[in-house]
Design a protein that fits this description.
The structure is a single chain. With 326 residues, the chain is an alpha/beta fold. Helix content is 48%, strand content 13%. It has two domains: 2-203, Class I glutamine amidotransferase (GATase) domain (Rossmann fold); 217-325, Homeodomain-like (Arc Repressor Mutant, subunit A, Orthogonal Bundle). The N and C termini lie far apart (54 Å). The relative contact order is 0.08.
Length: 326
């Protein structure tokens, strides 16, 4: 019997508690239907007897307090809403218990923005991690010693798992189900819940907003210049001159402020502009390519796919019904 502890943190996303509970309950039913015994024992584990979520919209009654919980084989840390620093403080004791369980053999997995709670334990320092693309910059600011894997749906590192944004946690749950059972059971669950079992990238859903929460006015000015001149050939030297900083110092400060090299930032701004054009116009690939400053079709296609996980045509057909119908 595999014992799974689903944490019930303060400020948790209700669905991120209910969905894994539902998945593993159904997995037990699938196994019984195929002549096998139930494998999973699931407990909702909290720091209080009743946890009020979403400003009173939901009330969750954990099966037990963490001090009473069975020794788990796997701990699931749901996503949290709102102020992440506050959520970290409110759930410090619960996450300390989770860290102790990991140190004595349990595996642990964060769902979406649950990565903020998982990271607060220190277990992720020097490791890789995934979270919702919306919160990547905030996560980097709070936890500079953790490597965020941009676009990843699932990250695994020595018994610690994390997932990408929103519904991406279903892919992590299916991954864990396959690990504890077999491929056939995971496929059956993916079909039952209508989840694409092998999706491994959330890049197609991401919107690049840049990192502007820093306190470097010259770098902010350079970012604004890049974004206002998407069509133009913008060089590192020109940008450094624009803000009156030496090239080497400019590149160092830009990377420190934005977590991107200058070239990476230019590419991501251009591709974000291309995505918006594909979503809202009937322009063909070449027209959009020239519009965002590229003249080489192969280079544009390569960079677009690297950043979004889709080719330009695939992206246009996915998000623009008018263009797909042409």
């Amino acid at each position: 019997m595999k014992k799974i502890a689903i944490l019930v943190p303060e400020a948790a996303v209700m669905q991120a508690i209910a969905d894994p509970q539902y998945l593993f309950a159904m997995a037990n039913e699938f196994m019984v239907a195929s002549g096998r015994s139930r494998l999973f024992q699931v407990q909702l584990v909290g720091g209080r007897r009743q946890v009020i979520l979403n400003e009173g919209s939901y009330s969750v009654l954990p099966d037990c307090l963490y001090s009473e919980a069975d020794k788990p084989d796997l701990i699931l840390v749901p996503a949290v809403l709102g102020d992440k620093k506050r959520a970290i403080q409110e759930n410090a004791s619960l996450m300390e218990w989770a860290a102790t369980q990991y140190s004595t053999g349990a595996e642990i997995a964060s769902l979406c923005a649950g990565a903020f709670l998982l990271a607060s334990t220190g277990m992720l320092d020097g490791r890789k991690c995934s979270t919702h693309w919306v919160f990547v910059n905030e996560f980097r600011d709070l936890y500079p010693d953790i490597e965020i894997v941009d676009g990843a749906v699932i990250t695994e590192d020595n018994g610690i798992y994390s997932s990408g944004g929103a519904n991406s946690y279903w892919n992590l749950l299916l991954h864990l189900l396959e690990k504890y059972t077999d491929r056939d059971t995971a496929i059956l669950a993916s079909k039952y819940f209508a989840i694409d079992i092998d999706r491994d990238n959330q890049s197609a859903f991401a919107m690049f907003r840049g990192q502007k929460g820093h306190n470097d006015p010259e770098i902010l000015k350079a970012q604004e210049y890049i974004e206002a001149n998407v069509r133009d050939r913008v060089t590192v030297d020109a940008l450094a001159n624009q803000v009156s900083i030496g090239r080497r110092s400019f590149e160092r400060r830009f990377k420190q402020a934005t977590s991107n090299s200058v070239l990476e930032y230019i590419q991501r701004v251009r591709i974000e502009a291309a995505k918006r054009s594909f979503e809202s116009s009937r322009k063909n690939i070449s027209e959009v390519m020239y519009e965002v400053g590229y003249t080489d079709t192969k280079a544009f296609r390569t960079i677009f796919k690297k950043i979004t996980g889709l080719t330009p045509i695939e992206y246009r057909n996915k998000y623009n019904k008018m263009a797909a119908a042409v």
